[in-house]
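Notebook entry, structure prediction.
Reason for the run: the old model in the group folder had no record of what sequence produced it. Starting over properly, with the input documented here first.
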Amino acid sequence: QVQLVESGGGSVQAGGSLRLSCAASEFTYSRYCMGWFRQAPGKEREGVASIDKYGGARYPDSRKGRFTISKDNAKNTLYLQMNSLKPEDTAMYYCVAGNTCGSRATMWNYWGQGTQVTVSS
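New structure, fully documented this time:
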């Protein structure tokens, strides 16, 4: 059973930073690609960043430069550092794991419960 537990969400003003964390089992880290998705009210889930089991990171073009995904294998923890946050970054952020680092939400096998990020102007 793969379990993903997110933390680190909260409220921040525009221009601020947040770091999200996702705790997972060691088995998950060694076997799966991992990533972050987000979903704003009334919108579809969209990919934020992903990292394969070898540490290779990928970002959609719109997220490059502001968001950084990383993982600490010793702590079995995935991170998402978000800088220069904008009100349009407001969403529920989900930690995901899957067999491939896909761009679509349907390509990911496991989802956490999510952590809310709210950015005020």
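Summary: Helices lie at 26-31.
The old model has been moved to the deprecated folder.
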